[in-house]
Amino acid sequence: MSQVLISAVLGLLVIPLNISSVLANPNYNNVSEKFSQTIQVQRPGRNQNRIFEQLNLTDEQTKKIIGIREENQQEIRQSLQNLRNVQEELNTMITGKGNDNQLRKKHSEVLQLRQELAELQFNTLLKIREVLTPQQLQQWSKLMQQRRESLQ
Fold first, then answer.
1. Contact yes or no for 113/82 (Cβ under 8 A)
2. Rounded CA gap, 3 and 76, in Å?
3. What count of Cα atoms within 13 Å lies in the side-chain half-sphere of residue 95?
4. pTM for this structure?
5. For 113-142, what is each residue's pLDDT tens digit?
């Protein structure tokens, strides 16, 4: 796999990785706030439109990408909601009277749901990747690198 393609794939992973980092580093005191931020990241908005413009997507590509996101959005949102619920249950157990075995079991459930969410996001990414030309993948990689640098 070429260096450019590897960079492009890594760039495509930025949004899912941002979401995963929110989920991977939970602050058990403000879980609801973290998840509302996560859901906001998933919603298409001005940043997505700006990226579409910078990638010079055709109308057909734009429609395909929007269709892919819409197709998977409900499943991703449901997965996020399930994760939120189990995460809150774990939080309650941590501050409550749950024994170690119960906590470990609930924690395993949280990890499994995170894995399922990551898989959904990655599959969406792969579908979107198929719509882009090699040049657009390269450009997307550059845009995502700039975004990562601006977030640091």
1. yes
2. 30
3. 7
4. 0.62
5. 999 999 999 999 899 999 999 999 999 889
